[in-house]
Amino acid sequence: MRQAQQAVVLIMGLRMADSELKRKVAIATAEEAGVSKNSVSLSVINGINALKQLEALQRHEKDLERQVFQSISTEEFRRREFSDLHGLLYHWCKFAYPNDFPTSKINPKKKRTKTKVNNELRDCLTPTLNRLQDGLKALKKDGISASVLSEDVRWEQERTLWVSFDIESAIDHIPAIEIVWQALVDSLKPDHDKKVRQAAMEYYWSRIIVVPLVAGKSIEQSAFFNMQITTAHLSSEDAREQVWRFVPEPVPNEIWGKLSLPVWDKPKGWFVFQRFVDAYGSLFQHIEHLADVVRIESVDANPVGEAIARAHLEKIKLQVEPYLQEAIDAWVVIVAEVTEVFETESSLELRPSIIEVSELLTGLKDAVIPPVDELDSTYLLSGKEFVVWRDSLKEGLNTLGVARFLWITDLVDNNSS
């Protein structure tokens, strides 16, 4: 409240300033009177944060009513409370930063609805959304069909902007998400210094989630969740250094149902490669643990600690074989599938992805197999060799990811053609 009171004084002084010099004088005069030059922006930011917190508080009140006071409902009070604060913030934000709101002609004879009143603050994002839609439509030139999917489906109670993009081949999935990310950055960047729009985006679009589709369907009911609006000023160079943004995560069935998007059926071949992925991951985790124990055993420690580490190492060494055997068995099944394709496919050039998979399989086998004694060809399963093996498996993770995506690309492309 105090920030708003101070802001009124500062805003009036700034509105009367018709030059940069007079603007500086107005700010200096206000600061001499104890009015911070940041009071205007802080009143907007804190006001919209209060709206967000009120929404969370009311959600908890509703949960409490259901659990404890089942016969009492204050829904009408909550609606009016939220509506009043929402309307107050709209008028204050428009007074403080009128240029953040689009100009439009209003028909004085047309009666405003209650829904419209509750959505007025959201109106400041209309130019932003239009710019984003245009930016996404422009991706057609890159073979990407992208659009805003929804603003109505929440993620973990947070208001969310859902964006989807559709490509013809699954192999284009990774470069496409980077292009979509840059479109988001370019579209939202012009509003980075607009106080009301930034605060409104962080409220209405607390999350920006991007859903990839291939030939109109999702591959694995997944999405990219790390596209938050607070990073809208990042450049493409920054994005390339943040690979973690481009790792898809699963979307729960309840949320996915609200998005109404189809998912590709998984043929038998899908699970063939997934078996190897799971086996490789389990083997890597086990060997990584062994390597960690070796490291602990090698550092200076008291005799008791060394004895405990050595005993644990000997115990978990015995568990290596089943993990290794499952990884080898799963690899052999994939090789058999690829061999069958090579022997039966008359137009192998139409399946370039499976050819690339076959080229990567040898490297994956080398990563799975532990170091071997050159004299008797037996596996070396002692301290230092576990570290070497762990590093080999770790390096192979990238190859595994590429091979998996190529495998899925072949399955999807052949089922969609």
What does the model show?
With 417 residues, the protein is mainly alpha-helical. The protein folds into three domains: 2-96, no CATH class; 124-259; 268-416. It has 15 helices and five strands. It has helices at residues 2-16, 20-32, 39-67, 75-96, 114-118, 126-137, 173-188, 195-204, 236-240, 253-259, 268-298, 303-317, 320-344, 352-368, 383-416, and strands spanning 145-150, 160-167, 207-214, 222-223, 249-250. The longest helix has 34 residues, at 383-416. 26% of the residues are buried.
Draw up the topology in text:
Elements (H helix, E strand, L loop, with lengths): L1 H15 L3 H13 L6 H29 L7 H22 L17 H5 L7 H12 L7 E6 L9 E8 L5 H16 L6 H10 L2 E8 L7 E2 L12 H5 L8 E2 L2 H7 L8 H31 L4 H15 L2 H25 L7 H17 L14 H34 L1
Parallel strand pairs: 2-3
Antiparallel strand pairs: 1-2, 4-5
How would you summarize this macromolecular structure in one to three sentences?
This protein has 15 helices and 5 strands.
What keywords describe this structure?
417 residues, three-stranded mixed β-sheet, two-stranded antiparallel sheet, mainly alpha
Number of domains: 3
Order of strands, widest sheet: 1-2-3
Kindly state the percentage of residues in helix.
Answer: 55-70%
How would you characterize the largest beta sheet?
A: 3 strands, mixed
H/E element sequence: HHHHHHEEHHEEHEHHHHHH
Alpha-carbon Rg, integer: 29 Å
User: What do the pLDDT scores average to?
Assistant: 78
Number of helices: 15
Low-confidence stretches: 105-118
Shape estimate: elongated
Please provide the count of β strands: 5
End-to-end gap: 62 Å
Kindly estimate the percentage of residues that lie in beta strands according to DSSP. Answer: 5-15%
By secondary-structure content and strand pairing, the structural class works out as mainly alpha
